[in-house]
Specification:
This protein is 86% helix and 0% strand. The chain is mainly α.
Length: 171
């Protein structure tokens, strides 16, 4: 049976690719948002979706960096992923409440906002679960769950980006 360090090394290319894709897509989203910054600034729902989307890309980047850290201890990985989960939630929870609960002018339907926010929150719960699995040295299941979390976060963030850019262009 391979050691944790060997298993971690076998995931190297996946996490390098995920981190690079996430950083690239976040940069492109920044460019798209900056072209329409006035709309983002005046619509709480759009601003909130932008924050949640950028946070999702950033979370994938942080997950990738954590997983590229050379360690032989799954507990260290688990603690770092728990810290990433907590930091991500601190960044997005205020945005979620602000964007979903506002009654001011809306650029996006409430159901779109709630579904996009809900999908991100569910993936963060998956990230926390993967962190706990690493802490319990169940790295086989943890890697599988973490793979799903990264893929879903990227898919949701790309979908959110599309919604943002189409909404910004329409305004």
């Amino acid at each position: 049976m391979p050691s944790y360090a060997e298993t971690l090394g076998s995931w190297h290319d996946f996490f390098v690719t995920a981190g690079a894709a996430s950083a690239t897509l976040a940069g492109l989203l920044f460019v798209g948002i900056s072209l329409h910054v006035r709309i983002v600034a005046t619509h709480v729902d759009v601003r909130s979706l932008a924050r949640v989307t950028l946070s999702a890309f950033f979370t994938v980047l942080v997950i990738s960096l954590v997983m590229l850290y050379p360690t032989g201890e799954p507990v260290i990985t688990g603690l770092a992923l728990l810290a990433a989960t907590f930091a991500s939630l601190v960044l997005i929870v205020p945005a979620i409440f602000g964007g979903a609960m506002t009654d001011r002018r809306r650029a996006l339907p409430r159901r779109v906002i709630l579904s996009r926010f809900g999908a991100v929150l569910v993936t963060y719960l998956g990230l926390a679960a993967a962190a706990v699995l690493f802490e319990r040295s169940d790295s086989g299941n943890a890697f599988g769950l973490l793979f799903a979390v990264v893929v879903v976060l990227l898919v949701v963030a790309v979908r959110n980006s599309w919604d943002l850019l189409v909404t910004l262009a329409a305004k």
